[in-house]
Structures are given as structure tokens and as C-alpha cells.
Recover the amino acids of this structure.
DNA sequence: TTGTAAGCGTTATCAC
DNA sequence: GTGATAACGCTTACAA
């Protein structure tokens, strides 16, 4: 039962190196003026002793936290919500942790924070808020927080901090251009009735594109409230697609505004004896495994999550090393919206009519 | 530019309540002996002031960290590795954060820790290590850490701490029984050549099952080193499956030991004009979206990740409230292995020959 | 250039 | 029961 040798502290280093704690601190952090020889000596001693500064102590002294909190959405009323996005959130978390570490910060996942106190106790000075929604239950908690905040997804209120969003408008444009180039003339959109702000925005982008070109557009709505699983969501999309495709003047390109809708559309086409992409083109506004594995694989917009999170962290910490003035990072403008470029993953559901 | 009102501290509460800091601490934590009236008074004042204890300060004083670190595997030599498991890791991270919070701990994701110092600086007192491998580059770093550790996945060395693993042996047994019940007589296994300890273990379980019943078993190996994408991995599995299915005495049940292998097998069967499950049964040892979305959906073993992480956290923190003696949690036995029950998700790839 | 000392917010020790 | 006081390990005026 050997007692674990306690980690060396500044005091230890100072004693061994024969200098004061201040000098050690300055020598290692490069802050004050220290003689070059003293500095290298201290550094060497620190290395030999295996000294590592304690984040906790440093944070307490500095009044910050060195960690950024990732706030996942509360699981909403929709039973589907959690299922729908759990994989997505996982990806966000892992990527966010990498980006945070790039800024010398650790990342802490805060699944569901109930009261402002709970959040405050973490002393987080930076927060990434995922998918803010219209009547988000997290709002009161967040308002009470003094942490720097960046929202991932459009903030309907634009009051907590800047938002980082994928440039879905650009994405829709690229997608529609692509569909047009593949011969589409009339379009159909299948939209979920969820309170994510991106859905209305996508619909609007589509409408604008069509209006500008005089193209015909039909919009079908899927009631997700009735769906309990992703399969049911796909099936519901299939129903809606079925109706649209049965119409005499059926659209020859169908876009699903949810990860699960594409395959629903394909199933609908197939059951009507229509070939994809021969008779109807199919695409989604969000890429994902479903789109990649579908038969045929579905053309979709790649949201570029790493770029989104890099942008978010940059917003929080960017000018930190240059500006010593404030709490670090650039001034955060509440209703500013940073758009991140997206790209189109073109797949067999829209090309190769052969 | 109003200065943000600093968060109230124990000192503030003490002053307002007209008592000492000690009394406040005792009153709020319930540790020492405090008069009931004093206690409720202090509590009320604290509530009014919106006092929230600072985790940082508390941790410094107590010498702990209140957070558990999640150590993702280093991205290994295999280019595929990251792709293969990124979704999985994300799920692990989110679920782990929930389980950690259940024990009043925050969860921090540490993607790739290079030197022992870096890890030490976090002062983590609990660590969940993901997928320890045979020659894991993280070992020296971990050995140097004094944190309590639990490994998720079998530890080939059994030296760092207890391992939590899904009971794949049980899973294989259930799966094989199921296949046998569905009419299989000869079996084939398609295994990747990756250094995860679970693969050899699964193969062994399969061999034992077959040996006990005198059933014939063939094993095919896929060289993942040549694969750069999941698609290529599936294609490689398809090649191997093709060879096995072309043999005159082809197996009538094929099991893929990787999430992407199932669909490769199905593709192989299809291209040989064999129906699934009519002519050949197909299954995987790991469930996932791929298995669910495949056509037909693939029977697979559900690894029960939430249960695994719950077990891991329990191991770390279980007896904390009862035992005040040590650093919390039960004694961690290095080579102990905790197995978590798994279940079989039966799907169309093995049933409904009709 | 270096050292002294105060302070960050909390808990633990030990008097009263 | 309650309250000084000293840690915890670090940073940083301010002095020397």
C-alpha cells in the first residue's frame, strides 16, 4: 500500500530549483521577465520532477474554467426526437471535443441542465448550445448564465449569442441546380412538422429558387407527432410521397427534409413502379448513413459538421492569444449568424438514368 | 458596461446570514453539527442570494475533480479505424455523459492524449478507457495516471483496471441457437483482422458452439488494411463471402464480425442468385444502423451500450455514499471482467423463409 | 531580475 | 453548536 507520490507542485519545483514560486510560475508561463538561464534551469527541473500544473488550481486563481460545455437539447415532447438525433449528437460531441482541445479547452457534455444553479456550478465560461428551438426550456437557464455562448443552429430569438448554421440556402441552391441539370422540371418537397428553425428556412429557399425560375413546386407535410420510430417516420414520408407521385402531374424530383425521408420516397416510387432516378429523382437536405446505404444511394447535402464546430470554437476563442484585454475571444454579437459552406454529395438517386 | 455581479460565495452567505463561513459550509453540506434553525436560516439566505458552490474551489480543496474522463482510442494505423467507429464513439460519449451525471460527475472527452503530463493536468480521478488494444499507445500514459480506471472492452493485459465487456459469448450462443433453429447446419464466419480483442473471442465462441454440436464451421478473413472506406470494407467482406458461398458445400448461415460485413454478405449472396434468408441466413455480431436499414434487415447482436456504461460508472462510484473511507467507489480489481448481458435483434435476414 | 504576500472559494482541523 | 485558521496549488500586484 505505497502511498502514491503526490504530484509535484510549483513549491516543489521552486525548492529544487532554488528559486521562488513566482519565478517558477513566470519561467514556465513566459509571463514576467526572467533571466534566460534561470528560465531554462527551472524548465529542466520541472521536467525532471514531472511537474504538471493543476488545471483546477489555475482555474480557481484565474477565475475561469478551461472547459467548454456542450449543451444537448432537452428531449422534447416528440418521442422521435431523441432517436432522430442521437447519432448526430454523438458526432457533434466527438468533433466538438477535438475542436475544443485545439483551443486548449476540455469539453464537457451537459445532457440536460435543470436549474441555473446546476449550470453555474460548473463555472463554465464557454458554452456551445445545440439546436436552440422556439420555446426552448433551456432558455431561462441560459439567460442566467454568464458564459460566453455560441449556438449551433439558428436561434429563433437571437438574444443569447451568435449562431453558427450550415448554409442550407446555398445547399438548396446547389441541390436544385443539380436536379435541374439532371432534367427535373417540377419539384416536390416533403417536410416534417418539427420546430427546428431549419425546416421553414429550407422550404423558403426551395420556394425562392422555384419562383425565380418559374418552376412548379409542391410541398407535402409529414406529421411526426404520430411517429414513434424512425421507421415510422420513413413510412409516413412514404405515404406523403405516394400521394404526390400518384398525381397526374407528379413532380419529377422529390426532396426529403429529414434524414429518414429519402428512403421513404424511394419506397413510394418503387411501389408505384417508378424507377429512381429513371422516373423520379430523389434527394435529401441532410446527409447521413441512411442516405449512403440506401439502394440506390441518395444524393444529399453534406452539412460539414467539423467546419461548423471549428467556426463555433473560433468564435469563442479566436482572438484569445492576441487580445489580452477581456475574457478572451472576439466580441460576441447576439444576433450575428455565421454561415458555414456546405457541399452536395451526388449519388445514384439523381444521376445515371441509364 | 455594467460589471457582471460576481457570483456570491460562502463568505457572502456567511455575512448576510450573520454566521461564519464554517457554519455555512456545514449547514449546506450537512456535515458538521449545526442547530436546525441556523441551518434552515442559512439555507434560505443561500437560496435568496442564488449561491451556488464553485466546483473548482471545492475540487481544489478536496483534491478531486468531479469529472470523469472518456479516453477515445488513438486513431490507429488503420485508416479505416476512425471511420469505422466514429458513430459508435459518439454514442458512447453521449450515453457516458448521462451515466456520469447520474453520479454527480461531469464527463470530459479526451480524444487523444499524448504525454502523461497532459492527462495529469486534468486532475481526473476517474477514467473510462475505450477499446484498449494489444499494443495500445495509450498505455504508458495510463500507467502513469493515478486515476481510477475502468476499461470498456477487454484489456489484453489486465493490468490497468477492471474491464466491462458485452457478453458476446452469450450473444454468440443465442445467435447460433437461433440460426440452428432456423435450419442452419453448416456455418461460416467472416472476421476482420483488427487488433480488437473481441474478434478472436467471438471466433472462439463460435468454434466452441460448433464443436459441441459437431457442426461444421468455416472461417474467412478480411484484410482491412487494404480498405480505406466502409464501402471498401463491405466489398472486401463480399469477396470473402463470395468465395465461401461458391464452394460446393457452402455454409447455410454466414456471420459477419463487423458492422459493415453483413451487407457485404448479402450482396455476395444476391450476386450468386442466392436468396436471403431462403438459401442462406445472414447475421452480424454487432447491431447498428447498417443492420437495421439493410435489405433485408440483418439479424444482429445488440450490445446494450447503456448497460455497459452504467456498469462502468457503478464500478467507479458505486459505494461512494456508503463508504467514506477511500477515494470512493469499490475496490477496483485490475483483471476483473464484468460482463454485461446482450440480446439478439432478430430480423428478416434469418427468418421468414417464405 | 527575483521574491514576498495576498487572494481565488472551498473544506477540514481544532479550538472555544 | 460555532468560529478562527490553515490548507488546496496557482497567479499576480507590488516590493526589493
Amino acid at each position: 500500500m505505497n502511498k502514491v507520490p503526490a504530484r509535484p507542485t510549483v513549491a516543489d519545483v521552486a525548492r529544487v530549483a532554488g528559486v521562488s514560486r513566482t519565478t517558477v510560475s513566470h519561467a514556465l508561463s513566459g509571463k514576467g521577465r526572467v533571466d534566460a538561464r534561470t528560465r531554462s534551469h527551472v524548465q529542466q527541473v520541472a521536467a525532471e520532477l514531472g511537474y504538471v500544473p493543476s488545471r483546477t488550481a489555475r482555474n480557481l486563481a484565474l477565475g475561469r474554467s478551461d472547459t467548454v460545455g456542450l449543451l444537448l437539447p432537452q428531449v422534447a415532447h416528440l418521442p422521435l426526437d431523441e432517436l432522430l438525433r442521437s447519432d448526430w449528437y454523438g458526432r457533434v460531441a466527438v468533433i466538438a471535443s477535438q475542436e475544443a482541445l485545439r483551443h486548449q479547452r476540455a469539453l464537457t457534455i451537459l445532457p440536460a441542465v435543470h436549474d441555473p444553479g446546476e449550470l453555474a456550478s460548473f463555472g463554465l465560461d464557454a458554452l456551445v448550445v445545440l439546436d436552440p428551438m422556439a420555446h426552448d426550456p433551456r432558455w431561462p437557464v441560459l439567460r442566467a448564465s454568464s458564459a460566453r455562448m455560441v449556438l449551433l443552429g439558428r436561434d429563433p430569438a437571437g438574444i443569447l449569442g451568435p449562431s453558427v448554421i450550415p448554409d442550407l440556402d446555398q445547399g438548396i441552391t446547389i441541390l436544385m441546380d443539380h436536379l435541374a441539370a439532371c432534367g427535373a422540371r417540377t419539384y416536390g418537397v416533403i417536410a416534417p412538422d418539427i420546430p427546428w428553425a431549419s425546416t421553414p428556412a429550407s422550404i423558403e429557399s426551395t420556394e425562392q429558387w422555384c419562383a425565380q425560375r418559374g418552376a412548379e413546386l409542391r410541398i407535402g407535410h409529414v406529421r411526426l407527432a404520430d411517429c414513434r420510430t424512425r421507421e415510422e417516420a420513413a413510412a409516413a414520408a412514404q405515404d406523403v410521397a405516394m400521394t404526390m407521385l400518384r398525381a397526374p402531374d407528379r413532380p419529377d424530383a422529390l426532396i426529403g427534409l429529414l434524414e429518414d425521408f429519402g428512403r421513404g420516397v424511394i419506397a413510394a416510387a418503387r411501389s408505384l413502379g417508378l424507377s429512381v432516378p429513371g422516373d423520379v429523382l430523389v434527394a435529401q437536405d441532410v446527409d447521413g448513413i441512411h442516405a449512403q446505404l440506401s439502394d440506390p444511394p441518395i444524393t444529399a447535402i453534406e452539412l460539414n459538421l467539423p467546419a461548423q464546430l471549428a467556426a463555433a470554437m473560433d468564435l469563442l476563442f479566436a482572438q484569445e492569444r492576441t487580445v489580452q484585454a477581456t475574457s478572451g475571444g472576439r466580441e460576441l454579437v447576439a444576433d450575428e449568424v455565421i454561415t458555414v459552406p456546405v457541399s452536395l454529395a451526388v449519388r445514384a438517386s439523381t444521376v445515371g438514368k441509364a
Summary: Chain A has three domains: 10-62, 67-166+306-340, 168-303.
